[in-house]
Amino acid sequence: MTPMQTFVALITNPTRAFNELEKSPRFAAPMILLLVANIGLIIWFYAIVDVDSLVNHMLAARPLTDAQRAQAAGLITRNTLLFGALFVGLLTLFVTQVVQAFYFFFTYEFLDVQRSFRQWFALTWWCSLPQLITTAAAAVIILFSHASASAGVLSPFSLNQLFFHFDPEDNGYSLLNSITLVQLLTVLLMVIGAHTWSKRSWVLDVVVVILPRVVLYGIWAWFVFLR
């Protein structure tokens, strides 16, 4: 099965796609596609955005005096923001895939499901392809908003952008901006993939897939809103 056929199968017949990945766990195609899409979007955004306005929004969340804020603003340039965003964005993408693959590998080893790290690594990359929906939507928004766009447009389907509309200086902005509706598609694909390979109950596979997200966002929410 070619990468394009695998991509189509994820939409039309995900069980068939995961059976194919089980036999041939290739991940280069989704990895390259996601990297190129993320790099392109970040470069485009920081090439056209109003840097002064963006920096002012960023610094508004910091407990700084006017003098300190002015000094910090003078040190932050378009290139600084661009390369910082590229480094953080790509590192986060890679670390997320590696951590998820190790989590599935060790969890299902404990459950006596014998699959290699490479197989789980391939699964995480293919299941992350719904992120391209976010990238496409963000590109459309940037196209029409031009320099007036804020960093929030990079995550147009986040809970913050859709429902809460917190400003960067508000508690919970980063948390709510990191939780997106598109993640539900990734979770759904992971559940189907895990169930296809494990042959265990749907309930077990759902718990395995969503447990780390519940723990992560639960702890984050506690620190932001309750501590």
Could you tell me the radius of gyration in angstroms?
20 Å
Amino- and carboxy-terminal Cα gap: 50 Å
Net shape = globular
Helix content: over 70%
What string, H for helix and E for strand, traces the elements in order?
A: HHHHHHHHHHHH
Number of domains: 1
Outline the low-pLDDT stretches: none
Q: How much of the residues is beta strand, in percent?
A: under 5%
DSSP summary: helix tally: 12
Kindly report the average pLDDT value: 91
Largest sheet: none
Counting DSSP E segments of at least 2 residues, the number of strands comes to 0
What structural category arises from helix and sheet content?
Answer: mainly alpha
Layout: helices, strands, pairs:
Elements: H1 3-12, H2 14-23, H3 28-48, H4 51-60, H5 66-75, H6 78-110, H7 117-127, H8 131-145, H9 159-164, H10 173-178, H11 183-198, H12 202-226
Helix pairs in contact: 1-2, 2-11, 3-6, 3-8, 6-7, 11-12
